[in-house]
Amino acid sequence: MSVLAKSIAGYLQNASWIRRMFEAGSKLKAQYGADKVQDFSLGNPDLPAPLEVKQGLEAFLKDADKPFAFGYMSNAGFPWLREKLASHLASEQGVPLQANDVLLSCGAAGALNAFLRAVIDPDDELLCFAPYFVEYGFYVGNFGGKLQAIKTDPETFAPDLDALAKAINPKTKIVLINSPNNPTGVVYTESQLRALVAILKEKSQEIGHPIWLVSDEPYRFLVYDDITVPPVLPSYPYSVCVSSFSKNLSLPGERIGYLALAPDLPEKDEVMAAITMTNRILGYVNPPVIGQQIMKYALGSHVDKARYASRRDAMATVLTRAGYSYHMPHGAFYFFPKAPGGDDIAFVNALAKELVLAVPGSGFGYPGFFRLAFCVDESVIYAAEAGFTKARSVFEH
Prior knowledge:
The protein is built from 14 helices and 12 strands.
């Protein structure tokens, strides 16, 4: 008899493919040497943090010996930073925001879990488009909810809004979007967003309760080809923006993120009070002190995006020469090519034999494809070409 909760025992059997491949990569690196393994498994940004991060740390260090330098603060974060963040997001989202419209959190994952705890009842449903970040399902499952995935177009990964409309039912509580998307790099257009919002307004009236629109956007800063990411908060009163500073500042381990509510949200103060409480009772208590202090200097900064653009071009060159079919990503730092032969798990295992690490699309609810994270040096990308070519040839002959 297992001592574990049934749900967690099930999660362990279906553990994140991202982490699984990362751990497999660690073993390969120990066996063959790190320089022999081309690792595209984990979206762990390798670019140095911007200079403003160092400046923020140095400034905080001068006061680190003062009383309460590392003490508790409001569960929603320092009031001065909430004001600063609200001003920053007001410009980014194109809406007026006040300090009480935003909450600082332990990463975007912390913000999303706090929000779900505040609004999800058992058996409520969260809808999202596949492929999707697999831990969304774990997050909503933490509170008795269920994730229902809606498949996107396999050529462009555009959201299927007709399928979304058909999937909405009285148990639907949230529609979650991720743009720029992990793992496809797709950026939803303004017309797609408008059409999605129109569906939510109509269906909310039909089923008798508002459907939340949650936008998870840690890659908002990273787009290519002069594409823009349309803001969500001005589009719909029940919209929520969740993000972090993990990718734009290369700070994933510091766990600092945020949540922002639409300024015209009905009962907004009550909703924020609830999320602030769930931020506390889930055990986060408050966002990290050091991460907040860094934001004095680093808010609005980002790593050198040109280097990611160059890496995207390098990966496209390698995949094209190796004979792969893929959709060019317009944002984030991932490619999601088709798996030769169609069996993504078998193909990723074949790649691993060539010391090239990827993640099967099955780990994102979308079999038949595989994900490559190109947040690595260009030398790693080009070194993988031989492995990509050999693995493909095995599956196509």
